[in-house]
Amino acid sequence: MGGVLLAVVGGFALVFMAGSGYVPFFSMRTAWEAPYDRGASDRGNSSWLVGDTVARSRFDGVTGFDVGSGHKRWEYVVPGRADTCAVSPAATGSVVLLAYGLNDERCATVVALDLTDGRELWHTTAPGTAAYDTLVTGGGLGVLRDSTGRVRAVDLRTGASRWNAAVPKGCATGSVAAAEKQVLATVACGTEAKLAAFDPADGKERWTVPLDARRGVAANAEVRLLSAEPAVVSVADQADSGMRATLAFGPDGRPQGRIDDIGDYGSIEESAVGGGRLFAIASYEGSQSTWERVVAFDLATGDQVWRADLGNADLEQLDVTGGRVTTVSLDKKYGDGLYVFDAATGDEEEDRAFRERMGPSDALGELFTHGDRVVVVRWGAGQRPLSVYERW
Fold it and tell me: Looking at residue 218, what DSSP letter applies?
């Protein structure tokens, strides 16, 4: 009887310790952290992981760190007293784009940076009084949208001009995305929002389709491109009967899956595209409070493929890499946690506790995975801009 009691007590102790971040094979511990930022701004904030370099931008420049050691590899400082005002959300190869302007004047200059060493590859200036407000990379191109609505493409590594997009007559461009086989842009044509595709070789229009052929989507709706290949668009029309959904389109512009922001899976809070699927964090009403889960959808059909209920966990950010879906949870009472799922099946592969707190949810930015390490990016004054955690 005494042995059984000891086993039960030991089991409870193991469960408690597993949530503390001090049990081998169940824990995450801090490998290194970047120094605190000097000052802060909400302009120019982004981050990228290229090979074993993680780079973080802010209003006055970009800094690259070695993921393994935390050593600062390089720093690029925006010239003079200029501020960064736009960045490309993703790197292609190792190259990203930044636009900057002087003292809140127009954001007229774009520079291409190689994130492996922080070198400036080229720069260009917008003509006349135009300013650049949207920068994307993909398929070996840098695609620039300026304040007049013009969209032009340049060679990503040299800056050589490639083409100016043949935007449909009577339409104004919104968000842009680029990939190997097509360049996409959301366009407002009169009172309706549509999706247009361009040939990456010469910028000629391939097709333009309504986002909703039956009812249409208002031109003033919030429309964001989540992916160029496959074509995936997030629509948030704030009208009472407006669409709030993620839409997928085939290579010819034909509609494919539709995933509503609210369904029997809950309310989608965060999403990421990978492997022909949409992975989302969804919240729903639990027994006593709002709970959260990770849900996977097939983009071709819109069907739910799998979901993983995580209970009363405050999930933050998603990383979809190498056939795995990674997310982190913040819990003031029980501690922060790491969850990893098989992207194909939804099987839980890992449930680990962080030894140290990751900080407030409103400070957390991007989440990256690299080997056995997890990179957390933060924003705001008084925050560590980067923390890298390792499995233990």
Answer: B
* Residue 344, both tokens: 């194909």
Distance of alpha carbon 156 from alpha carbon 143, whole angstroms: 9
Closest CA relative to residue 145, chosen from 155, 129, 154, 133:
133
Looking at residue 117, its amino acid is: D
Indicate the Cα dihedral angle 37, 38, 39, 41, nearest 10°.
-50
Higher per-residue confidence, 224 vs 289: 224
For residue 57, pLDDT beyond 70: yes
Phi-psi region of 280 (alpha: psi -120 to 50; beta: other; left: phi over 0): beta
Instruction: Give the chain's mean pLDDT.
Output: 91
Q: How far apart (Å, rounded) are the C-alpha atoms in residues 234 and 198? A: 19
Reported as half-sphere exposure (CB side, CA atoms, 13 A), residue 50 has a value of 22
Q: Distances in Å between the alpha carbon of 356 and those of 22, 113, 264?
A: 10, 34, 35
Domains and CATH numbers, the chain: 266-392 (2.40.10.480)
Which uninterrupted H or E stretch holds 306?
strand 304-309
Q: Kind and range of the H or E element at 4?
A: helix 2-18
Residue 249: C-alpha distances to residues 69, 182, 184 (Å): 42, 12, 11
Whole-prediction pTM value?
0.92
The predicted model gives 321-345 an average pLDDT of 93
